[in-house]
Automatic annotation (TrEMBL):
The lineage of its organism: Eukaryota, Fungi, Dikarya, Ascomycota, Pezizomycotina. It comes from Microdochium trichocladiopsis. Its main location: membrane. Residues 46-61 have a biased composition (Low complexity). The keyword Lipoprotein applies. Pfam families: Ras. This is Ras family protein.
Length: 283
């Protein structure tokens, strides 16, 4: 596996501070949740500060409960992506992640229904390779991430991350996510990479890798808060479209003479998984 260069081009934290998204608190609330027989008992966490409140509330069950796992090289920006989305700010300091979960309750815009979205952050370091597979069961979608300022991290997508998720989650939809897009044209980043005979990853290069994976491709800058919401909106639309209930309803509404799924939904990864898993024998 190619070595990952962890050099940060963001500079000192004093130069950037914590950047907050002003409307984030109006759109979603972040929770750390525990299950109970009477519903979801949640400790509410402020979307603007990330601090937990002292009280708890019981929320109504969401229409969908989905799980997204995020993988990629250590230091490529996975945790910043999740924090900027779920808590509305860009973290000042890099703290290596072992395993961390975030629960959010966004709205699926086409239907107006609430989705309980569990975001599973994973460690990219090799010493956690044996533990990381514990995160994969029951995953609805995977973000395979790399840093645009580190070409090696894109190489590792094909060398390590794609083979790994293909092994553990062969039917799970993938989105290849290019992180730190704001660094693509940053002079200090370009000059640093030039000393190594490298250049920032281009959109074309990212698209080419995504095509090999059969994945969607998107980019964002967690620091500038650009493209983050669009990535999660795409993810939410994908997992809801792939929900077993929606697939069954679509198949019932538009059956084909061959008995397969309608052509309108046949391309969805969830349909392929549904077909595969439906081949069972009851003894």
């Amino acid at each position: 596996m190619a070595p990952y260069n962890r050099t940060s081009y963001y500079g000192n934290s004093e130069d950037h501070g914590i950047q907050r998204r002003p409307t984030n608190s109006d759109r979603r609330t972040t929770h750390r949740s525990t299950r109970s027989s009477e519903g979801t008992v949640s400790t509410t966490m402020s979307a603007s500060t990330g601090r937990e409140s002292s009280g708890t509330t019981t929320t109504e069950a969401p229409s969908y409960s989905k799980k997204i796992v995020v993988v990629g090289d250590g230091g490529c920006g996975k945790t910043c992506l999740l924090i900027s989305y779920s808590q509305g700010y860009f973290p000042e300091k890099y703290v290596p992640t072992v395993f961390e979960n975030y629960i959010t309750y966004p709205t699926h815009m086409p239907t107006g229904k609430t989705v309980e979205l569990a975001l599973w952050d994973t460690a990219g370091q090799e010493e956690y390779d044996r533990l990381r597979p514990l995160s994969y069961p029951e995953t609805d979608l995977i973000f395979v991430c790399f840093a645009i300022d580190c070409p090696n991290s894109l190489e590792n997508v094909l060398d390590k991350w794609y083979p790994e998720v293909l092994h553990f989650c062969p039917y799970t939809p993938l989105i290849l996510v290019g992180l730190k897009s704001d660094l693509r044209f940053k002079k200090s980043c370009i000059e640093m990479l030039k000393t190594q005979g490298l250049t920032p990853v281009t959109d074309v290069q990212g698209q080419a890798v995504a095509k090999k994976m059969g994945a969607q491709y998107m980019e964002c800058s967690s620091k500038e808060m650009t493209g983050v919401d669009e990535i999660f909106e795409r993810a939410i639309n994908t997992v809801v479209a792939n929900d077993r209930r929606n697939i069954e309803a679509a198949m019932a509404a538009a059956p084909t003479s061959s008995g397969g799924p309608p052509k309108e939904i046949a391309h969805l990864p969830g349909v392929r998984a549904f077909k595969k898993k439906s081949r069972c024998t009851i003894l």
